[in-house]
Amino acid sequence: MASLDPMDNRWRPWRLLAPALTAVFLLLVVPISFIIVYSFWLRTATGADIAGFHLDNWEEVLTDPFYRDIMVFTIWIAFATTVVCAVAGYIPAYFIATTQFKHKAFLLLLLMLPFWISYIIRTMSWINILGSSGIVNVALQWLGITDEPIQMLYNQWTVIVGLVHFLLPFMILNIYVSLYAIDRNLVDAARSLGCTGWQSFREVTLPLSVPGLAAGSLLCFVLAAGTYITPVVLGGPTDAMFANLVFDAIITQLNWPLGSALSLVLLILLGVLVAIYNRFAGLGQIAKSFG
Amino acid sequence: MTDHAVELKSVVKRYGDFTAVHDTNLGIPEGSFLTLLGPSGCGKTTTLRMIAGLTGITEGDILIKGRRVNDLPIHKRNLGIVFQNYALFPHRTVQQNVAFGLKYRNTPKDEAERRVREALELVQLPQMADRMPSQLSGGQQQRIALARAIVIQPDVLLLDEPLSALDANLREDMRIELKRIQHTLGITTVFVTHDQSEALAMSDRIVVMSAGHVEQVGSPEEVYNRPASEFVAGFLGNSNILSGKVMDIAGPVAKLELDGLGPVLAATDGVGRTLSTGETVKVSIRAEKLMLDGADPAGDDISTFPGTVTTVDYQGQVARYFLESGGLTLQAINTIDERPLQEGTETAIRIRARDCVVLPH
Ligand SMILES: Nc1ncnc2c1ncn2[C@@H]1O[C@H](COP(=O)(O)OP(=O)(O)OP(=O)(O)O)[C@@H](O)[C@H]1O
Ligand SMILES: [Mg+2]
């Protein structure tokens, strides 16, 4: 009876957490459990799935060089995107963090502006820029630099461009948060001890912004590695990434068991990455940039 | 003028239309401890940062060791700065923090190690070299910040309210400690504070500032006993500021007629000019120099008025009295022999001529 007493403090946290826990359970734990179970089923030539505990899907996914190559390609794209975001994002983040401009909130709002437009539309906009009748080609032809439109779209570089376009604000925000938290006096102290402006950046600002860089990088890498739309819209026929494989297996081939195993591989890979990051940096840093 | 380690010549600092520091001239003698004292927002930090090179100057010149440094970037000025919040590098050990400035002076490794050790011994924390700043208490961080600033043997040591983040007891210990270190090294020091007791206890010279102006420069005794303005008299300690008229002048002593109180003898040596009879002046009398019944001074330069105790603020060793006399409210702080005077007591108020200071304006 005691546990039903609304004033019983022992149950209070659980009661407060109940809606969230229910949502997590129904929307995350249950579907993932299904996928785990599915990944051990077997797909037959007739199209029917055989329930049971079969390692065939896992064996195929883990040994077939086709999947391995695409995994390597996915990691490469995510890595390249992250590096470009880190380098290109640091400068605006530094600017916003150190500017004397009174309306910093406005600058941060500008950073959020792209999110008001659908990700797919933003991705497609590159077709109007880099496509054969896009603005770059039209300009080049008009200037007489080329006669024929240059094929710039539909390769791994345009996939990276599209992903950077999408992920840059996340990176800037994360770096900004850690730069903003750095005490200006630290830089002044370094300067007074003999550092030039550049040296004090290297000695103080850069090392102290590493947590933000790391958090932004993790976010960019995970989001890039799981991307599905960008390679479809901006990649060539050979630029499929891992999420495209999952889509293909499940939606096109209706092979749920294989698709399940594939998606779990991606999940585990990214999960390991997050765990490593958490081991060294702590996930709290990412939460800061959303706070 | 080369015996001045730092010199400010007609220095002005403006932020847009706002003048943070007005035309300021200041010489800081080699090896001395100078304090910039004043209320919040009076321009102390701005002045210090201009000397440091952290803030540009709008007009005038700053000379360090006789050399004009207006356009010399901060990293070439060879100054030691201690910030109010310590500003230790959080990602470096204590050792690395203290050695930081030596690294940029290309000091050989073994010499650097020796000097870091000596600096840590000077601040009495030799065993902390391998700690991170986050593992130190506030007082310890303050000492490390000081060690980091002095290890480079700076031409001038600049301290911006270095003690204000410490709690009261520690603050008094550190104040003695800081003075000891400054004395040991004989280093020219500019110290910023809004705490008058800190300034009086530590300084060779005090610069009292108000609203971007220098109000007075002098030794602690001078600014305390011979305030040059109403502001200084009011800012340091508790003072009674009264106005009156000059009746007669006899050498360093003048006979005044104070509004409400009547005739009084007053010292004129702080005025810096000759007064003329009939002139209206202001005088400052420190609360602890107003002597009530129980303290009976002898001398022929004593003026006496009747007064009534209206409020008693008993503080154990001393009591602060508010008195009514001639329609004025006066403040007196007296040590107590046995028990304080009671409210409503009629008492005699006595003032020695040298404690009744005529203000220059
Ligand atoms: N960057 C700035 N832009 C505009 N005004 C400033 C700037 N820095 C300081 N001020 C103004 O200059 C005046 C003096 O500031 P300063 O920091 O020197 O005061 P302070 O005497 O050190 O006061 P505190 O005891 O509060 O530290 C203040 O009124 C302040 O508002
Ligand atoms: Mg200040």
From TrEMBL, chain A:
<dbReference type="Pfam" id="PF00528">
    <property type="entry name" value="BPD_transp_1"/>
</dbReference>
<dbReference type="InterPro" id="IPR000515">
    <property type="entry name" value="MetI-like"/>
</dbReference>
<dbReference type="GO" id="GO:0055085">
    <property type="term" value="P:transmembrane transport"/>
</dbReference>
<keyword id="KW-0813">Transport</keyword>
<keyword id="KW-0812">Transmembrane</keyword>
<feature type="transmembrane region" description="Helical">
    <location>
        <begin position="105"/>
        <end position="121"/>
    </location>
</feature>
<keyword id="KW-1003">Cell membrane</keyword>
<feature type="transmembrane region" description="Helical">
    <location>
        <begin position="157"/>
        <end position="182"/>
    </location>
</feature>
<feature type="transmembrane region" description="Helical">
    <location>
        <begin position="127"/>
        <end position="145"/>
    </location>
</feature>
<dbReference type="GO" id="GO:0005886">
    <property type="term" value="C:plasma membrane"/>
</dbReference>
<feature type="transmembrane region" description="Helical">
    <location>
        <begin position="213"/>
        <end position="234"/>
    </location>
</feature>
<protein>
    <submittedName>
        <fullName>ABC transporter permease</fullName>
    </submittedName>
</protein>
<feature type="transmembrane region" description="Helical">
    <location>
        <begin position="16"/>
        <end position="41"/>
    </location>
</feature>
<feature type="domain" description="ABC transmembrane type-1">
    <location>
        <begin position="71"/>
        <end position="277"/>
    </location>
</feature>
<feature type="transmembrane region" description="Helical">
    <location>
        <begin position="70"/>
        <end position="93"/>
    </location>
</feature>
<feature type="transmembrane region" description="Helical">
    <location>
        <begin position="254"/>
        <end position="277"/>
    </location>
</feature>
<comment type="similarity">
    <text>Belongs to the binding-protein-dependent transport system permease family. CysTW subfamily.</text>
</comment>
<keyword id="KW-1133">Transmembrane helix</keyword>
<keyword id="KW-0472">Membrane</keyword>
<dbReference type="InterPro" id="IPR035906">
    <property type="entry name" value="MetI-like_sf"/>
</dbReference>
From TrEMBL, chain B:
<dbReference type="InterPro" id="IPR013611">
    <property type="entry name" value="Transp-assoc_OB_typ2"/>
</dbReference>
<dbReference type="InterPro" id="IPR003593">
    <property type="entry name" value="AAA+_ATPase"/>
</dbReference>
<dbReference type="GO" id="GO:0016887">
    <property type="term" value="F:ATP hydrolysis activity"/>
</dbReference>
<keyword id="KW-1003">Cell membrane</keyword>
<dbReference type="GO" id="GO:0015417">
    <property type="term" value="F:ABC-type polyamine transporter activity"/>
</dbReference>
<dbReference type="GO" id="GO:0005524">
    <property type="term" value="F:ATP binding"/>
</dbReference>
<comment type="similarity">
    <text>Belongs to the ABC transporter superfamily. Spermidine/putrescine importer (TC 3.A.1.11.1) family.</text>
</comment>
<dbReference type="InterPro" id="IPR005893">
    <property type="entry name" value="PotA-like"/>
</dbReference>
<keyword id="KW-0813">Transport</keyword>
<dbReference type="Pfam" id="PF00005">
    <property type="entry name" value="ABC_tran"/>
</dbReference>
<keyword id="KW-0472">Membrane</keyword>
<dbReference type="InterPro" id="IPR017871">
    <property type="entry name" value="ABC_transporter-like_CS"/>
</dbReference>
<dbReference type="InterPro" id="IPR003439">
    <property type="entry name" value="ABC_transporter-like_ATP-bd"/>
</dbReference>
<feature type="domain" description="ABC transporter">
    <location>
        <begin position="6"/>
        <end position="236"/>
    </location>
</feature>
<comment type="function">
    <text>Part of the ABC transporter complex PotABCD involved in spermidine/putrescine import. Responsible for energy coupling to the transport system.</text>
</comment>
<keyword id="KW-1278">Translocase</keyword>
<dbReference type="GO" id="GO:0043190">
    <property type="term" value="C:ATP-binding cassette (ABC) transporter complex"/>
</dbReference>
<protein>
    <recommendedName>
        <fullName>Spermidine/putrescine import ATP-binding protein PotA</fullName>
        <ecNumber>7.6.2.11</ecNumber>
    </recommendedName>
</protein>
<dbReference type="InterPro" id="IPR008995">
    <property type="entry name" value="Mo/tungstate-bd_C_term_dom"/>
</dbReference>
<dbReference type="Pfam" id="PF08402">
    <property type="entry name" value="TOBE_2"/>
</dbReference>
<keyword id="KW-0547">Nucleotide-binding</keyword>
<keyword id="KW-0067">ATP-binding</keyword>
